[in-house]
Amino acid sequence: MNKSVASPAAAVADIGSGASMAVGGFGLCGIPTELIAALAKTGVEDLRVLSNNCGVDDWGLGILLSNKRISRITSSYVGENKEFERQFLSGELEVELIPQGTLAERMRAGGCGVPAFYTPAGVGTLVAEGGLPWRYGTDGSVILASPPKEVREFGGRSYVLEEAITTDFALVRAAVGDTHGNLVFNASARNFNPLCAMAGAVTIAEVERLVEPGELDPDSIHLPGIFVQRVVEVGEDSEKRIERRTVRPGTDRG
Fold first, then answer.
1. What is the b/e burial string over 100-124, where b = at least 16 CB atoms within 10 angstroms of the residue's CB?
2. Closest Cα to residue 33, out of 10, 7, 59?
3. How many other C-beta atoms lie within 10 A of the C-beta of residue 131?
4. How far apart, in whole angstroms, are the C-alpha atoms of residue 4 and residue 27?
5. From the CB of residue 233, how many other CB atoms can be counted at a distance below 10 Å?
6. 178 beta partners
7. 3-state DSSP assignment of residue 229
8. Cβ–Cβ under 8 Å, residues 133 and 181
């Protein structure tokens, strides 16, 4: 039952080129920075990533993106990442943009064994009708677009069918974990992490603090260890960045 791994490098060693991977975090909050950095050093490429966004130009998933290690990403928004935008519009990267709530539910459904579900989000738009650009050509033309999806009516309202998401691997970050893989997240860093963990066939968790089984209050556990296959302690001093500061500069009250 001991799922602890000695290092981030050892934890990601079997992630190969072409693998699909769900990655937790929202912006730069709660992203598995140490696992991503370790993966970047392996030389793996052609990764098919599912994450709310793709980090920023020099941090998080942005490191893999700038090194051309990602061939496809499924996400909710481009965010502050200019390289993400450049690669998508120049035809270097395939991108499937999904409404944020739909992305979350598709991963949760995958973890619960639900193959598909109906949602009102996207009805009457290209999300349902198809035609959203997934890949551009070098001349700016759309060479791959989203297919149309099934739409049905329930109770007089239309809903679009969305399929569940499962991936080969998942990388997540938690504040505390035990050696059985039970995880506790810190405040808003919880975000997409539990959902990504549920979607992965092999889920790898980096934790700031690793404890023994029984040290966590069962009622405080956010994600049970059944969804986690590996856990690695990275310490509380690992670097955390803020995507964009929004506080006002200090004023001299003298």
1. bebbbbbbbbbbeeeeebbbebbbe
2. 59
3. 13
4. 27
5. 21
6. 211
7. coil
8. no
Predicted confidence pLDDT, tens digits, the chain (254 residues): 899 999 999 999 999 999 999 999 998 999 999 999 999 999 999 999 999 999 888 899 999 999 999 999 999 988 778 999 999 999 999 999 999 999 999 999 999 999 999 999 999 999 999 999 999 999 999 999 999 999 999 999 999 999 999 999 999 999 999 999 999 999 999 999 999 999 999 999 999 999 999 999 999 999 999 999 999 999 988 888 877 777 877 666 55
Distance CA 214, CA 234 (A): 21
Residue 209: count other Cβ atoms within 10 Å of its Cβ.
15
- Which of 49, 33, 42, 44 lies closest to 206 in space, CA to CA? 33
Please give the Cα distance from 105 to 125 (Å, whole number).
19
The answer to whether 180 touches 1, Cβ cutoff 8 Å, is yes
pTM: 0.93
What distance in Å separates the CA atoms of residue 19 and residue 95, rounded to the nearest whole number? 16
Give residue limits of the domains in the chain: 1-114+164-238, 116-163
What are 47's strand-pairing partners? 70
CB atoms within 10 A of CB 249: 5
CB 234 within 8 A of CB 8: yes
Looking at CATH, the fold of the domain delimited by 1-114+164-238 is given as Glutaconate Coenzyme A-transferase (3.40.1080)
b/e string for 136-147 if b means 16 or more Cβ within 10 A?
beeeeeeeeebe
DSSP of 122-140: TTTSHHHH---EEEE-TTS
Q: First CA to last CA across the chain, in angstroms?
A: 60
